Amino acid sequence: MPIKEYGPGASPEVHRWPGGVTWFAHPGETMRRASHALVIGDDRSLATTAPEPAEGDVWLVEPIDAAGLDDILEDLGQVAGVVVLAELHRRDAETIATRHDVPIFLPERIATLGPTLDARVSVFTGTLPGTSFRAIPVLDGVPWSESVLHDPESGTLVATEVLVTSDRTTGWGERLAVGPYARLQPPRAALSDRHVERVLVGHGEPLATDARAALDRALARSVRGLPAYLLKDALFMLRAGYVALRD
Fold this sequence. Notes:
alpha/beta, Metallo-beta-lactamase, Chain A, seven-stranded mixed β-sheet, four-stranded mixed β-sheet, 21% helix
């Protein structure tokens, strides 16, 4: 099984949940890179009651292109924008934003990524325009820069690199973990007091049950759980880091 596959996915794996969709463009890759579509309701928060989507209400988070993706998105509504949260995750943001004629939205924390993108870019501070999702800075250049998105109404947290759920990036018995390269600096102050009902990550499946408890455990054991994680999968960590830096 390859660590990472390239190009648009031919047979994406799609997970539908109240308020949106998560897809894996390359379900066979070990990295388990996940992309998300957030459907925003009339109150600007995530449409967890699944109303009929209104135009301009679908936000794509760090998308990877795949066969049939536009048909999936059309069923949700109209794409309003593409969001990149971690400077490592350009993915197919440029291609998809251009295809849908929408900007790429960057939180201020990674504004320096803007000039490197071949697409319209909009840098925002605080709330993502047209939504109740707020950008919260979690990492500042070491080992990368990243913000997360949090919707206090639905309790949805979107953390695409600093938190992970995939088997190869979590330790034994961990449903949710701080990403391997960030374990020594978990974002406890930024995330400890948030209302969290679900966590959407960039590597692994969405976490929708006991999410707050899982997050508390991930933050609490991030540092002390690092030796156990390295025993479990240090080789994957090194290989994945090489692939990420190379690309």
